[in-house]
Amino acid sequence: MHEDKFTIAWWMKYGSTPGTTEAIFSTDEQGEGAGIFINTGATAVISLSATNPTPANIVNVTTGTGYIPDNTNWYFYVGRIDTSLTTDAGIMRRNDANEVKANRSNAPAAGNAHRALLLAARQLTSPQRYGDFDIDETSVWNKIMSSGDETSLYNSGSGLEIY
Length: 163
Prior knowledge:
The protein is mostly beta strands. The protein has a single domain, classed as Jelly Rolls (Sandwich). The chain contains 1 helix and 12 strands. Strand 6 (about 75-80) and strand 7 form a beta hairpin.
């Protein structure tokens, strides 16, 4: 059975003010924009996106400016994508706060990922961009976690170890 859903959770603290566009987790080798990015340019957002190999955007969740981390505090993030849905197919949360949702814009293609996952880097961009941040307790599930599970991991800001 082919599943098109995942949840990714992580704690993050920046070491310095984020640059223009930095990848947190990415498969963005050729400008496809697949992954999770911080864009602190004119829009100041975090984007969680999934694309087809063509590339055609399937889901793109864009947060507000309140999601951008500072360099003094740890923040808890959760991103969920379920491409079997057309409404609310992508969801982002920060620190157990309100959810930001996005609908699916294109049908997903079947098959496995066609590029490796990169951490804190975007390849083949000019110039190459690297994030200056610490990440802890990162986990990826091949299911959609419930809001209750996410709240439990957040643990009122103290976090729980992920096993």
